[in-house]
Amino acid sequence: MGIFNRSKGKIGQFRVEDNWNLPNALTFSRMLMAPVIVFLLSEDGRFRNQLAAATVGAAAFTDFLDGHLARKQGKETRLGQFLDPLADKICISTAFVMLSVRNRLPAWVPSVIIGREALITLFRVYAGSQGSSVPASIWGKLKTNSQLITLLMVILEKNEPSYAALKKVTVDLSVALTLYSGLDYMRKARQYLEAPEGMQGV
User: d(Cα 78, Cα 7) in Å, to the nearest integer?
Assistant: First the structure.
């Protein structure tokens, strides 16, 4: 499958070298954090939880940094646009699954999150095969932020009634935003697929 260099407007030309840049390297590094999260959350322990939370925080920081650098340096690529949200989904889904395995979250929570992410990823792949890109929506960004906050709160568990109540609110909110953002993408599916190439968002 060819990778198109949108920043230079070379539609239909294969430009492998454009994909090897710092923003995409940061995206790849975020994907490599998933096994670290699995290891740290495989057992309970205050220090391991703190390291797991730090790893999730580092993943979130690289998510911000790679997007910022790609825009600033003019190194946005189709590969980066595809891998960036995929890396987020891998890290976040991995953490939610591990917390469920450790009985720190009910199993239905990661089921909803992973189901939504799989559906939207398949839609992005299909849109890409049709020559379109699906930009991140405001609801998608809110969804991701709420999921990160939920993960940090569940990982850094505190045995306090007020903390437990706040954690429940964040879990419920992240699930609600996960579902709504997925429905929002599906509602706009035709718009994404029919919009001219030059009109697609970043």
Answer: 10
Contact 186, 121 (CB under 8 A): no
pLDDT of residue 7: 39
All domains of the chain, ordered by start, with CATH?
Answer: 6-199 (1.20.120.1760)
The answer to whether residues 154 and 44 touch, using CB atoms and an 8 Å cutoff, is no
Give long-range contacts, CB 8 A cutoff, 24+ apart: 121-125: 121/85, 121/86, 121/89, 123/185, 123/186, 123/189, 124/82, 124/85, 125/82
Chain centre to alpha carbon of residue 11: 27
Please give the full DSSP string across 77-120, using - where no structure is assigned: -HHHHHHHHHHHHHHHHHHHHHHHHTTSS-THHHHHHHHHHHHH
Query: E strands within 125-199?
Result: none
The pair of three-digit structure tokens given for residue 57, joined into one six-digit string: 């925080």
Q: What is the three-class DSSP state of 5?
A: strand
Identify the DSSP state of 12.
T
Q: Quick one: tokens of 110?
A: 């990661």
Q: How far is 147 from 140, CA to CA, in rounded Å?
A: 11
pTM comes to 0.77
pLDDT digits over 90-132, tens only?
999 999 999 999 999 999 999 999 999 898 888 877 877 777 7
